[in-house]
Specification:
single chain; mainly alpha; Serine Threonine Protein Phosphatase 5, Tetratricopeptide repeat; 0% strand
Length: 309
């Protein structure tokens, strides 16, 4: 009888693994539950159920599964690791880092654990410590472009733009067509005030992903900084076609039209921004000197009256 129950547990466990691999997490959880009814103290089924729950954003339930697993297998390194990820998602950062550290005691050469520890430290705002975690990842796996990218993100947050640029460039060495890395590189260069180089980065993003609305939008901002307003408007037009509900794009486009003395289009685009987010833009427009040259225009004043502001 016990052998039959064990065989059934294994059958349902393998079924759950296949479903989880196919991202059918709800079905996978049901299969793992069947396996656990046949064999309640089944650590692999418990841990995989925890992974599936975490994939559905049910992090509290996932942690409960991981805790049950660890009662049965205290030295399950990857369970400590996945538990750390779940705790980080719940912003329980001290517990999360402790969980990663337990995992690293068991397997200090696990590049993935060091990497996810670094991501959790970034989420916590501990960017200097995150850089150290990413460095450990890269000592173990020098070609890990994702770790170079995230190290760059942490350095950017610290205002270390030169070091961030070096990190993004290493990521690009290993994955030259990664749009996310080029986008992050462009953002860092823009914050650093290196606008021509930032523009080149955003252009590379668009070459790789022509419908990357954020790249078109940030490209517009950089062109504004370079006072190339017609080109900025063209870039914002692309962005607004891809993301018509992004109020910031309409507002930024309006600002460029004011610079170009195209009052009608400035008003039209401001109206779109206000329609999407009235409280924000009506408050901004009250005091923003960039719009002083159209403040006396009847159409500008009418926007306030229409909203009873």
């Amino acid at each position: 009888m016990q052998m039959t129950m064990n065989l059934e547990a294994e059958f349902f466990f393998q079924q759950g693994l296949r479903q989880s691999k196919a991202a059918k997490f709800q079905e996978a959880i049901a299969s793992f539950d069947k396996a656990l009814r046949c064999k309640p103290n089944y650590p692999k089924a418990l841990s995989q159920k925890g992974f599936a729950l975490g994939s559905l954003g049910r992090h509290e339930d996932a942690i409960a599964c991981f805790n049950q697993t660890l009662k049965l297998q205290w030295k399950a390194c990857w369970v400590w690791h996945n538990r750390g990820i779940a705790l980080g998602k719940l912003e329980r950062y001290i517990e999360a880092i402790n969980s990663f550290d337990y995992a690293l005691e068991l397997n200090p050469n696990a590049a993935t654990i060091w990497h996810n520890r670094g991501i959790t430290l970034c989420d916590w705002g501990q960017y200097a410590k995150a850089v150290k975690s990413f460095d450990r990842t890269l000592q173990l796996q020098p070609d890990a472009y994702w770790a170079w990218n995230n190290k760059g993100n942490a350095l950017k947050q610290l205002g270390s733009h030169k070091e961030a640029l070096d990190s993004y460039d290493r990521a690009i060495e290993f994955d030259p067509d990664n749009a996310r890395v080029w986008q992050n590189r462009g953002m860092s260069l823009m914050e650093w005030g290196r606008y021509e180089k930032a523009l080149a980065s955003f252009d590379r993003v668009i070459t790789i992903q022509p419908n990357h609305d954020q790249a078109w939008s940030k490209r517009g901002l950089v062109l504004e900084k370079l006072r190339r307003y017609q080109e900025a408007i063209a870039s914002y037009k692309h962005a607004s076609q891809l993301q018509p509900c992004d109020h910031t794009i309409w507002y930024n486009k309006a600002r460029c039209y004011v610079r170009e003395n195209n009052i009608e289009e400035a008003i039209n685009n401001l109206q779109r921004a206000i329609n999407l987010c009235p409280d924000k833009y009506l408050q901004i427009l009250k005091n923003n000197s960039e719009f002083d040259k159209i403040r006396s225009d009847e159409r500008f004043q009418a926007m306030f009256q229409e909203q009873n502001y």
